[in-house]
Specification:
The complex is a heterodimer of chains A (116) and B (111). Chain A contains no helices and eleven strands. Chain A has strands at 3-7, 11-12, 18-25, 33-39, 46-52, 57-59, 67-72, 77-82, 91-99, 102-106, 110-114. In chain B, the strands form two sheets. In chain B, strands 1, 3, 4, 7, 8 and 9 form a six-stranded mixed β-sheet that branches. In chain B, strands 2-6-5 form a three-stranded antiparallel β-sheet, with no helix packed on it. The chains are: A mainly beta (116), B mainly beta (111). The A-B interface holds A 35, 44-47, 49, 58-61, 94, 100-104, 106-109 and B 33-34, 36, 38, 44-48, 51-52, 57, 89, 91, 93, 97-105.
């Protein structure tokens, strides 16, 4: 059973960079696409982007200018960086595996609050 | 402007059948992209419920079924149970936006 776990600071100051790591266990990161999805409190889901194990990415055009994703296959980890954050970026961030166009394994989610 | 539109809420008594619609357009569902459904129980991460329009992953009860027609899709829950109270989201791909998109979400309440 594939397990994903998000880690990173729960509080980020406005204008700074949000950084999250996802550690994959129970399976290899190789051969798959891996995604980040976020959910503001009380709101719906928003796809942020995905990264292939080779490092290629596809990002949500609405966030593309502020997002960087990377992958470390040796550690079975992938990461998200979102710069110039504002209060609107406050959300639960999920790391997820992508398979044939759907999201089959989800992390438990990490709440990141943007506040001074 | 939501890309995939769902009713905000649906409700039903235990044992009843409820359906949730997901309305898209010619750049997503109507373009032939698959629709997937997720169940989000309170305080938890979403869970894949239906993939590829109508396929249930292992462990998902057959009370849940999905269908797709034209620019819309539907999720049906038959024999509604208290444990089905949750938020449900549809998801597809949109060629105009060049990315994955989610529905607005539907809260199911068991009366």
């Amino acid at each position: 059973q594939v397990h994903l776990q998000e880690s990173g600071p729960g509080l980020v100051k406005p204008s700074e960079t949000l950084s999250l790591m996802c550690t994959v266990s129970g399976g290899s990161i190789s051969g798959f696409y891996w995604s980040w999805i976020r959910q503001p409190p009380g709101k719906g889901l928003e796809w942020i982007g995905y990264i292939f194990y080779s490092g290629s990415t596809d990002l949500n055009p609405s966030l593309k200018s502020r997002v960087t994703m990377s992958v470390d296959t040796s550690k079975n980890q992938f990461s998200l960086k979102l710069n110039s954050v504002t209060a609107a970026d406050t959300a639960v961030y999920y790391c997820v595996r992508v398979f044939r166009g759907h999201f089959d394994y989800w992390g438990q989610g990490a709440l990141v609050t943007v506040s001074s | 402007q939501p890309v995939l539109t769902q009713p905000p809420s649906v409700s039903g008594a235990p044992g009843q059948r409820v359906t949730i619609s997901c309305t898209g357009s010619s750049s997503n569902i109507g373009a032939g992209y698959d629709v997937n459904w997720y169940q989000q129980l309170p305080g938890t991460a979403p869970k894949l419920l239906i993939s590829g329009n109508s396929n249930r992953p292992s462990g998902v009860p057959d009370r849940f079924s999905g269908s797709k027609s034209g620019t819309s899709a539907s999720l049906a829950i038959t024999g509604l149970q208290a444990e089905d109270e949750a938020d449900y989201y549809c998801q597809s791909y949109d060629s105009s936006l060049s990315g994955y998109v989610f529905g607005t979400g539907t809260r199911v309440t068991v009366l």
